[in-house]
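Re: the multi-chain job from yesterday

Posting the exact lines I submitted so nobody has to dig through the queue logs.
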Amino acid sequence: MEVFFQALVNGILRSGLYALTSVGLALSVGVLRIVNFAHGEFLMLGAYLGVFMFILFGLDPLLSLPVAAAALFALGLLIYRYSIKFVLEAPELNQMLLTFGISVFIQNLALILWTGDPRAISSFYRSLTLELGGINAGMGRFLTFVIAFLIITALYLVLTRTRAGKAMRAVSQSREGAGLVGIKVEKIYLYTFGLSAALAGMAGVMLSMVLYAQPAVGLEFTLKAFCIVVMAGLGNIGGVIWASLLLGVTESIVGTYVPQGTGWSDGVFFILILAVLIYRSRGVGQWFAQ
Amino acid sequence: MVRPVKPVLILGMLAAVFLALAPLAADPYLLHIIILILMSAVMALSWDLLVRTGQLSLAHAGFFGLGAYASALTVNLLGAGWWVSFLSAALVGGMAALGLGIIVLRLHGMYFAIATLAFTEVLRTFILQAQFTGGAVGVTLPAIFGGSRVAAYYLVLVVFILCLLVSVFLQKSRWGLAFQAIRARQAVAEVLGVNTVKTKLAAFVVSSIFPSLMGAFYIHYVTYIIPYEAFSLNISVSALVMSVFGGIYSTAGPIIGAVVLKILEEYLKSAIVYGYTVIYGLILALVILFMPNGLLGVMRRVAGGGRVGQIFRRAYGGKRTGDQD
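And the result, structure tokens for all chains:
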């Protein structure tokens, strides 16, 4: 039973990063209606930023968070301004190909610049462990969960309480309607994309805290984040938290109980995606009706 | 649709003569490069078959690896001959496409794109984890035709011609019209009596059999493969970028793209060993922004008397140029 609770706690802690990454993706998909394949690459860049800030300036990863947020926000604005903006009206295929191209470009540029070797930082968060009733939690993982929770709460407040946040939600509901009441839709797109990148960047810094930075790490997170967004339903930010918990805990339990489970747990998200897609395409009602 | 013009026919005939006689003139290295170009052309052209219905597949690497492993295991575990192993690769690839397609092709295009990407990643995880596949060590095979490069060349040439014929058939027959209708507007296609799910499914299966065959050919040709190579995302990336660069929704575009980019890639590989794919990412983004109809689109406009500058302005204005044919 202790093993089970340990797996449960590990899964819950893991879901914090998933939720933070997915919330950014949900925001950009919800508002811009464009799947951003480069979302995981923003996270990867954030992770490298965390690593380099620590190595070069001895900056604590927690202090790198605002730096990464600002840097990725700026990068997001640039990418939107010089590429995404021009395919808003293009066929969906062109939109997907564009963001996929950006993703491939950033990932391989990182491979050339920083090689494929994983880079980790040895901050003191790794060595500390919290213990409660026989269940352990690494300090780093615990902190990522808490901070992810705080950032998502802040985002929720921004989206519900501020004019800018309300404008974003309005645009996600109806582009025309938002335009009619005087919201500058183009501006909202721009800032939403930047915000989405900033969220991924912060998730990346925390990834460098508990795991490592590596050029290919983005792809895995893009896929898992999309799995979560699909489970939650497009544009449903509250659902993202539950879906992240489901994915994190399932992965952790598969990793604990299935032989050679840590390898297999990488496939859990795919089963979840397929299950959700079958559910969405047929509708449960139809299954029972037949 | 553009009417076939005479220069194209002459070029085609010259290419046919060149391809038929290439082994007589080319030295082994050059022949190897031509084999790689033909493989890329099959990958790019087969990717285009599906995109004609408006679907973006990122599973070409998945089917390539699946074909490689299916054929290698057919030989190693069952002791079958090479052509049986090619059939088994095609069968496994086709069935996998059918299964995946039934689940995800009913939905909006973006679900399909992500599911195909995830499919590839999961296949690699599975091959790495399973016992009978050799895991991370990979699989080896004896060289096909006793290592005769000329024989291997003619084999890949046959698959290429097959792919070419399928592509032309799908373009000229009723299927081509159905594909066009679906990608223009699915709802209208349905009203016009096109069974959209079945049509997309057929396109996906046909489009997936060719990368499976190429995977089978590749393992027989180089005799050795590891999961990270067989399911590498770069395989899907190069196939789709070659196609988009040359010009999608056509037979000539992907072939032109494959010839140009494969030569460029071989050149770049010697300069940048890891990460040469960066150029594919860059080309893909730039082509979508500046010439969404690819090289073929540019050539058509130039041939049609249009000004080149106009293309760029129009593309950058974000018009739905991708839909025109």
